[in-house]
Here is the input.
Amino acid sequence: MKLAELYKGKTHSWMMLECSGSKNDTHSAVNQYFIHSEYESLLMDPGGIELFSPMLAAVLQHTELDKLTTLFASHQDPDIIATLSLWDKAIANATLYAPSLWDRFIGHFDLDNLHFEGVSDEGGEIQLGGVRLRILPAHYLHAAGNFHLYDPTAKVLMSANVGSAIKAPSDTKFVEDFSLHVKHIEQFHKRWMPSNQAKANWIARVKELDINILAPNHGKLYKGEQVQEFLEWFDKLDVGSAAK
Here is the structure.
């Protein structure tokens, strides 16, 4: 697993934990993100079963397990949250922030230690030590209950599947030429983002934020002017179509 620092400030840092996926699926690369402060840490979208061991080893390079106090799950896909039961056994006292719609499903993970904090449709906040993080609604992009996590200090938006690229080259961490990157994201967004109205609501909300890095679950990240290029492109895209 590759470790890359996305942001380092006085109070906390953002790490990108990049895994190339399982041995049988070379196209399933997943980006996980980890916020580390002196006293508390947060792990976002902790990943599939095959990622648990390398993720655990990576986290232990930066903090003790008793300081991993918070997990955030943006949506319910297996590549995002299949390891919840394993993390539940590894950390004794932590809170899982996830959509409140999961309330009737969360019991199926057989969690003993993780405290489930359901996030209402309007979103909310996470206080991580002295760091204030905003939970932003991103419903139907692509899950019915879906959230993104925004750090106004670091100016980083973890955007889950919005902005994700599948089977894209991993030669660089950030998109360098958006016009060349479009072919890796267009069909994915047409198919997996089912609502133009939901897309418009999200874009209006996100355009009010000061974002330096947009960090999706898959593929390259967007930085600086590439963030605006993606938002403008996504705004014009007609989504909810499986047509090739």
Remarks:
- The chain has one domain: 2-236.
- The domain at 2-236 is CATH 3.60.15.10 (Metallo-beta-lactamase; Chain A).
